[in-house]
Structures are given as C-alpha cells and as structure tokens.
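Narrative of accomplishments. A recurring question from our advisory board has been how the design workflow behaves on a single, concrete structure rather than in aggregate. To address it, we present the structure tokens for one chain from the evaluation set, followed by the sequence designed for it. No filtering or post-editing was applied between the two.
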C-alpha cells in the first residue's frame, strides 16, 4: 500500500501498472517455454510472432483503431504464413507417423 501525497499518486499507480506488466510478460514467456515441450521450437517462435496480429485485433475491438488496407494486407500475409507453417508441420508429422508403422507382410523395426 502506498502512503504518499496526492502529487505522487500517479507515480504509485505507474509502479502498480509496471508490476502487472511484469507478471503478464513472465506468464507469456512461461507459456512459450511450455509449448516448446510439445511442438517444434521453430513453430513456437513463428507463432509467437503473430502477436502483432493479435495487437491489431485488440486495438480494433477495444480501442476502436482504424484498420487500414496496409494492416489488413499484413494480417492476410501473417495468416497465410501460419497456414503454410502449420500445414507443412502436419504433413511432416503424418509422414513420420506412417513410415514408423509397418505395412502388411513387414516386420516391425526394433529401436535400440
């Protein structure tokens, strides 16, 4: 609890806001580290960079910011990149899974 004069009340509010920002930033970083245990690091880092897209959406919805043609075009490019990334990783996973399973008449491969 801050016990300060009224002239310093803005400073106390800024400290409180910075503390909240710190907790949110730490939480976001923790989620990224957690995700790397389940998905390739390259995918996680690429998806993490979609934060600019989310910032544009939040700015439009909550702050009423204008969506210019440049912002919309950029958002479309980001979405195309995510689709390509996720699609290529899904195809890669599918190929790895199918090659690991033996077909009819083959013996399963033993791994050391």
């Amino acid at each position: 609890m801050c016990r300060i004069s009224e002239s310093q009340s803005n400073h106390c509010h800024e400290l409180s806001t910075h503390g909240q920002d710190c907790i949110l930033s730490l939480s976001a970083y923790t989620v990224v580290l957690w995700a790397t245990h389940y998905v390739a690091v390259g995918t996680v880092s690429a998806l993490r960079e979609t934060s600019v897209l989310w910032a544009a959406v939040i700015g439009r919805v909550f702050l009423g910011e204008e969506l210019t043609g440049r912002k919309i075009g950029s958002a479309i490019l980001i979405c195309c990149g995510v689709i390509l990334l996720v699609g290529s990783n899904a195809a890669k996973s599918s190929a790895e899974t199918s090659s690991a399973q033996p077909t009819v008449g083959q013996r399963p491969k033993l791994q050391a």
